[in-house]
Design brief:
Layout lengths: L5 H5 L8 E4 L6 E5 L5 E9 L2 E9 L5 H16 L4 H10 L3 H16 L2 H19 L9 H10 L4 H20 L27 H17 L4 H13 L3 H5 L6 E2 L2 E4 L7 E3 L3 H8 L24 H11 L7 H13 L4 H8 L4 H4 L7 H18 L4 H10 L1
Antiparallel strand pairs: 1-2, 2-3, 3-4, 5-6, 6-7
Helix pairs in contact: 4-5, 5-7, 6-7, 8-9, 8-12, 9-11, 9-13
Length: 395
């Protein structure tokens, strides 16, 4: 066996079958010559009574000296009790991030998440995660890979953070499923971007305009009575869109709306008299269990976005979303002096922190009470009226 050199390797000629030529200096280091003429450097060893072989590089891509160095490292691993060939084989068979995405969606999202959440997960997987990381092996993904993807969507902080959340959940499950070592989630310590929560509430004047438009389109018949009722119920109950959209008549009880399932689980929602009046004036189609009927038999109205765009344009509420009707309900409740905890219960929030976005509105009734109190005290102190007005402006 000669010492392998560049000249010696290039002098080897292909034959009908593969053959090996081994180095005279390092046992187990050699070159494989294939019928095609390709030459690959090999490191061969025995483990568990079997001969194992690892390809360390192709001649022309790496030099003989580089291949010899890599072969020495592999032999060192074998001496320490490791099995490099088996590790390489397992790595080749290891699932990709794309495969992890499908397993996550099929065994977790479909079984444990609501349809709206499934839709959000599917969107993040198809549009953001798979295009960027789909071909990566699950075991190879590092924190920098996650950070790079997160940074790529820095212009859309909400989407960037939601995608990071999906990835974090996926890699937590990858640990549970034995696809990564415990505590190796690459999403850890990747900071989320600051999100500016949109707070849009309808003023009393805007509510009146909206109410008039709803009455007009109902009278004209340009929108169905179910569409009109849906928006009225959203304003009067503070419900989420899906809760009203999928509301069934059987859920209406003397206690309110008894929803067997919602974003936060089973929920009982108070049904004030104005909301009951809206329900009482709705037509009911035999065989259709839904309050907000759709165009198809026995179905609910699946599209309220297009009717809402028509209605809001007519009312001059160009930047108002359907979800802002829920914000309006909450802001009115807080501004009237209702305790934050009670507002949270009405909205179905499981955490007080979610309701605290409306906390600053609780200052309004306090400010009004302070003004009224100051008026009375000013009169007792015989402060001239114009001075009292001046004090009000300064405060």
């Amino acid at each position: 066996m000669p010492k392998l050199t560049k000249r010696a390797v290039e002098a080897l000629r292909p034959e009908a079958k593969d053959y090996f030529v081994w180095d005279s200096q390092i046992a187990g280091f050699g070159v494989r010559v294939m019928p095609s003429g390709a030459r690959t450097y090999q490191a061969q060893y025995r483990k568990g009574g079997r001969t194992r072989r690892v390809s360390v590089g192709r001649h022309g891509k790496i030099t003989v000296d580089e291949a010899r160095k890599l072969a020495k490292e592999i032999m060192g691993q074998v001496a320490r009790g490791e099995n490099p060939a088996e590790e390489i084989s397992l790595h080749r068979k290891a699932p990709t991030v794309a495969a992890l995405c499908e397993r996550f969606f099929d065994t977790h999202a479909k079984e444990r998440c609501k349809p709206s959440t499934q839709k959000e997960y599917r969107r993040a997987i198809d549009l953001f995660i798979v295009p960027a990381l789909g071909s990566f092996k699950v075991v190879d993904v590092e924190r920098k890979d996650i950070a790079d993807l997160h940074h790529k969507f820095r212009g859309k902080p909400y989407q960037a953070n939601r995608t990071l959340g999906v990835l974090s959940k996926m890699f937590n499950l990858a640990e549970v499923w034995g696809l990564r070592p415990d505590g190796s989630n690459p999403c850890r310590h990747v900071p989320k971007y600051r999100e500016i929560k949109r707070e849009r509430y309808l003023s009393q004047h805007e509510l009146q305009r909206l109410g008039q438009v709803l009455a007009d389109v109902e009278r004209e018949g340009s929108e169905t009575p179910f569409v009109v009722a849906a928006f009225r119920l959203l304003i009067l109950t503070g419900c989420r869109l899906g809760e009203i959209q999928t509301l069934k008549w059987e859920y209406i009880t003397p206690h309110g709306m008894e929803l067997p399932d919602s974003k936060t689980g089973a929920r009982r929602i108070p049904l004030p008299q104005p909301a009951r009046d809206v329900l009482a004036n709705l037509p009911r189609t035999p065989g259709n269990p839904y309050v907000i009927e759709g165009k198809l038999p026995r179905k609910y109205a699946t599209d309220l976005q297009h009717p809402w765009r028509r209605i809001r344009e007519r009312a001059g509420l160009h930047n108002v979303r359907i979800h802002d009707l829920r914000h309006t309900y909450a802001s009115n409740a807080v501004s009237s002096g209702m305790p934050i905890q009670m507002v949270g219960r009405l909205l179905g929030h499981t955490q007080l922190q979610t309701t605290m976005r409306y906390a600053h509105l609780a200052d309004d009734p306090v400010r009004r009470a302070a003004e009224e109190n100051a008026q009375r005290l000013g009169m007792s102190l015989n402060i001239p009226e114009n001075q009292v007005r001046k004090f009000q402006v300064i405060s």
